[in-house]
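Need the bound structure for zinc ion, inputs here:
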Amino acid sequence: MINIKENEHLSIMNHSCAHLLAQAVKHIYPNALFWVGPVIEEGFYYDIDLGDETLTEEALEKIEKEMKKIAKDGKRIVREEISKEEALAKFANDPYKIDLISRMDEEETTISCYTQGDFTDLCRGPHLETVKELKFFKLIKFSGAYWKGDAKNKMLQRIYGVCFENEEDLNAHLAELEEAKERDHRKIGKEQELYMNHELVGAGMPLWLPNGSIIRKQLENYIYEKEQKLGYDHVYTPCVGTVDLYKTSGHWDHYKENMFPMMKVDEEEFVLRPMNCPHHMLIFKNKMHSYRDLPVRIGEFATDFRYEASGAVKGLERVRCMCQNDAHLFVTPEQIGEEFKKVVSLILDVYRDFGLKNYKFRLSLRDPEDKEKYFDDDEMWNAAEAKLREVLNDLGVEYFEAIGEAAFYGPKLDVEVKPAVGPEVTLSTCQLDFLLPRRFELSYINSKGEKETPVVLHRAIFGTFDRFTAFIIEETKGRFPTWLSPVQVKVIPVNAEFQGDYGKEIKDYLAENGIRVELDDRNEKLGYRLREAQTQKVPYTLILGDAEKENNTISYRLHGEKDTTTLPKEEFLKMLKEEIDSKSLRK
Ligand code: TSB
Ligand code: ZN
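Answer from helper R.:
Posting the output first, comments after.
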């Protein structure tokens, strides 16, 4: 998809189109007041106070029509510069503009306004010469947006739109948006009954339905097996901790705004945990360690709670209750490189298994100029950062560096992915930490018999099962590989009266052999039942008629194909098992 913000001319166009939108809104809703209307990657939006009015699809169409009319009329867009006092006087009746103007820099003595016909807006510009150039635009959607993004403030109406230079570009963009909507995990999640939300449980607290739970269990088994082979020790720990635990870790001071509030039980003060590191630190500390035991790798599928803004919560991708595929690796300083390499190799391995290609590695380093922001140990930082780079180069991994993006406690590597809808998010992460082991006073005995502090690597390969599932749904468009599919085979007797028993026999045969199979022997037309299996994206559909029944065979059709193949049931099972065991990807 074209990134409007990165294209200078399209940016200007979209910005002018935002003004056009505001002008049209003002014609229809004379009392409307305007907050900000920035250009974004996907076009533009404008946040508008419509008083008690709320928008509808019809209203959006009406606004778009008015925009076309104004554009055709073709007024020039005129820039004017005024002083701060003049601006305050000009917009005296507009609390939003007053807010903007009064916060402008004292040095900013002149303020620019842009006028087109009967509409003037405060704006830095630049803009097009005339609204006539705005021909190929579309209003996309609207939503509520709190003023300044703060839930304590008034809810404004946000209208999104996009503008292009020609019709083809606009149509191509609209088609891409349509496609993105189709693969949005929230849509597929509903269609395929993967998860649900309920207001009685709460925002950002998904309930995994049986189909989604099958996928999650497969993911758990898959990564558990990999981690076992790599020497991880899995544990179970409570999803609460005392406030003191999080004071010791430093989260209480530095992460509190992302946490659910404290609750008191008897004399103890608890929090729902936002991270599992403190628990794992205590497990490490539970016994003495020698350098010979290191690395110690403590893994857990751990439930965490984070206070994400209500506006940011999104399907399975950004939740308030999540399950991390977490581990903390305790290493000697000399082992950092080798252990980091194992983590990156595991990430690559997993992404290969899932056929994922659309991702980027981001290496977050400290800004050497800004020492205040980072844990003070130059030597440690320099050595660690050099090591991480070296590993990535050794593995031939492409990555980009984000200077100044490291955490206070160490550099990190993240994997960034782009969801169907919305901005990029982090999936996998591997974070070096020099500080937490000190805060918990962890130690091991080194080869000279002295006490030394280990370094910790925090890592989550899937990130969370929640976010990874969201991403897999969107990448596969709900056509999961057979090993992940909630239903792997659908058995359809052509006519339940004649082949119903045979259908049941085949279903039982496959089920007994560990295949997830459903029988559709409803009294519905064959075509109807086949179409339903298609919509459910079941990998294999078995069609059983008289010939199959007589010869003890099955005829299968792969999802999305018309041809059928006939095989003895044993051969079909063997083929299917091989495909599942090897975790083959769908073609
Ligand atoms: C890796 N302490 C480390 C851990 O040891 C940690 O918590 N890191 S994290 O904050 O980056 O979170 C790990 C991963 O969880 C992220 O990379 C991201 O993929 C996922 N994640 C974070 N917030 C959310 C959320 N609100 N919803 C779903 N997944 C999330
Ligand atoms: Zn951690």
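Comments: The chain has three domains: 4-176, 195-476, 489-581. The CA atoms of residues 296 and 330 lie 5 Å apart.
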